[in-house]
């Protein structure tokens, strides 16, 4: 058994497509979930969706780069549900200036956008870990799940800033896994999920035309994916539930690819 029922989780970016799917999957297993995001409207909408499905959820309106606000969110969820057992760092995103389009070159990189993408994806993983792992250390148990990307492991054209930030997340995942195990015992584990290509708000226009057909980049991606399709957000739930629960009690410092075989395929 994975023993997730009545555990408490915080999902940063739980108001987004992928973070939201992970939150829904955990809630379906009886986890009490805190939905943490900057947009109050979308956070409340996700909480309502989970509650309508019979789950328990709490709105935590916060910025992952604001430690003081995160500490207030930690206090709120502890007072409502109890100590946090699971942290999913799913907040992230990209910016146009940190992406190199086909008609641009490396020398067109916007360094301010590059910094902002690194702040959101990397530092936005480190700070929530600093805040919520303290309670795990006190309890000597917990699971931190970072959301990486296959872009951290394979050189993808265009997404320079995002790829660099997610590569840092991979390294941080392994570093923190070792740190926690060596200093606080085997009860605190740190792993990551590396999604392949999923359709979200930020990449929809890049991968799909208005009529739903594939763009040229979308065709290239599907052609390089052995399963010949994009992922569905709910297909992240199995890996997340496994890493969150006792079934993965000897798993730490691992990056689990959920990518339809993209990372394994050489193209030949």
Give structural attributes:
15% strand, 7 strands, Rossmann fold, globular, seven-stranded parallel beta sheet, 8 helices, 268 residues, alpha/beta, 2 domains
Assess the beta-strand content as a share of residues: 5-15%
Query: Which range best describes the helical content: under 10%, 10-25%, 25-40%, 40-55%, 55-70% or over 70%?
Result: 40-55%
Q: What is the number of strand segments?
A: 7
Radius of gyration: 18 Å
* CATH H-level homologous superfamily name of the largest domain: NAD(P)-binding Rossmann-like Domain
Number of domains: 2
- CATH fold title of the largest domain: Rossmann fold
Large-scale geometry: globular
Order of helices and strands: EHEHEHEHEHEHHHE
From the 3D coordinates, which CATH architecture of the largest domain would you assign?
Answer: 3-Layer(aba) Sandwich
Q: Briefly, what CATH class of the largest domain?
A: Alpha Beta
Q: Can you tell me the residue ranges where pLDDT is under 50 for at least 5 consecutive residues?
A: none
How many strands, what sense, and barrel or not for the largest sheet? 7 strands, parallel
Number of helices: 8
Report the average pLDDT across residues: 95
Kindly name the structural category. alpha/beta
Termini distance?
Answer: 40 Å
Order of strands across the main sheet: 3-2-1-4-5-6-7
Describe this structure in words.
It is a single chain. This protein is an alpha/beta fold and 268 residues long. It folds into two domains: 8-196 and 233-257, Rossmann fold (3-Layer(aba) Sandwich); 202-230, no CATH class. Helix content is 42%, strand content 15%. It has eight helices and seven strands, in the order E-H-E-H-E-H-E-H-E-H-E-H-H-H-E. It has helices spanning 17-28, 40-52, 67-80, 111-139, 160-184, 204-207, 216-223, 237-244; strands spanning 8-12, 32-37, 56-61, 86-89, 142-147, 188-195, 255-258. A seven-stranded parallel beta sheet has the order 3-2-1-4-5-6-7, sandwiched between helices. It is globular. The N and C termini lie far apart (40 Å).
